[in-house]
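Worked example 3 (structure in, sequence out).
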């Protein structure tokens, strides 16, 4: 299993991000699981990621990336101009992650928390673990 995205399944911003990725991942190269799911917890453990992780995580090629690095690496695979965002990987990680953390720390306040999970189409459902 390569290119797995783990996301906060209770976060509206994260849910919107997953939908955004699905719509721009023309090759369907990503699969998804929520951090709160059993498979999500199992994958965190398998990759040696802290169980306290509540960030966007990309698992690929036996490695994991989190926060801004994960998001920008995902952008590199998306269709259209979104690939250009991956150029921000040249910005030092502490600076990128500082900005990421500000948004992540306020995501429930600014974007709300989900009451219900999205109901994906059968085609999209195949992409969730």
């Amino acid at each position: 299993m390569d290119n797995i995205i783990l996301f906060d399944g209770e976060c509206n911003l994260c849910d919107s991000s997953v939908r955004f990725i699905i719509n721009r991942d023309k090759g369907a190269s990503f699969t998804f699981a929520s951090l709160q799911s059993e498979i999500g917890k199992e994958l965190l453990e398998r990759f040696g990621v802290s169980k306290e992780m509540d960030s966007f995580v990309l698992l690929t090629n036996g490695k994991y990336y989190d926060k801004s690095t994960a998001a920008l690496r995902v952008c590199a695979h998306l269709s259209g101009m979104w690939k250009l965002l991956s150029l921000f990987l040249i910005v030092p990680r502490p600076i990128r992650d500082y900005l990421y953390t500000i948004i992540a720390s306020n995501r429930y306040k600014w974007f709300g928390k989900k009451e219900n999970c999205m109901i994906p189409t059968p085609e999209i459902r195949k992409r969730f673990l």
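Notes: Strands lie at 4-7, 31-34, 57-60, 63-66. Residues 4-117 form one domain.
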